[in-house]
Structure formats: structure tokens, C-alpha cells
């Protein structure tokens, strides 16, 4: 289990959401899901994260304006204990 600092509130099923302009975002699946990260404005897909089953999690780094869309995911901003 990773150690991180929680920031902000949890967003359920984010849709084109910048998660409070966070740089680091923790994603936790409530079901099998794919999270898509797009540039600010949604024109360019930067990458995708596949979460195989409920309980799977990932912490991603993104630019503050980048947006996340994912159904079956809870997302929240996090920081490093070293920051």
C-alpha cells in the first residue's frame, strides 16, 4: 500500500474533470474501468489506464488542466509525503 497525502474531495465517475487541477490523482475502481486522460479542452488523448476489477488502483501524474473521464472509478487529488 502506498503512502500519500489526500487533497480535496472524491469525484465519482469523473467526466472531463481536472480533479481540482491536481497534478497527482489516485484512481480506485468500483468496477472494471478505463480512465482516459485528455489535454485541457479534451481535443487530445494523452493516455489511458485500465483497472481490471473493483479495488484496483493507480496514481497518475498529469498537468493541472488535463482532464480525466472514467466510469466505475472514484478519483481524488493526492500529494507525495515528500512534497
Keywords:
83 residues, globular, Immunoglobulin-like, single chain, 3-stranded antiparallel sheet, mainly beta
Number of helices: 0
Assign the CATH topology. Answer: Immunoglobulin-like
The number of distinct β-strands equals: 7
Estimate nothing, just give the exact number of structural domains: 1
Summarize the structure.
This protein has no helices and seven strands. It is mostly beta strands and 83 residues long. The protein has a single domain (5-79), classed as Immunoglobulin-like (Sandwich), CATH 2.60.40.
Give an overview in words.
The chain is mostly beta strands. It has a single domain (5-79), classed as Immunoglobulin-like (Sandwich). Helices cover 0% and strands 51% of the residues. It is built from no helices and seven strands. It has strands spanning 5-12, 24-29, 33-38, 45-51, 57-61, 67-69, 73-79. The strands form two sheets. The chain has a four-stranded antiparallel beta sheet with strand order 1-7-2-5, with no helix packed on it. Strands 4-3-6 form a three-stranded antiparallel beta sheet, with no helix packed on it. It is globular. The chain starts with a strand and ends with a strand. The relative contact order is 0.41.
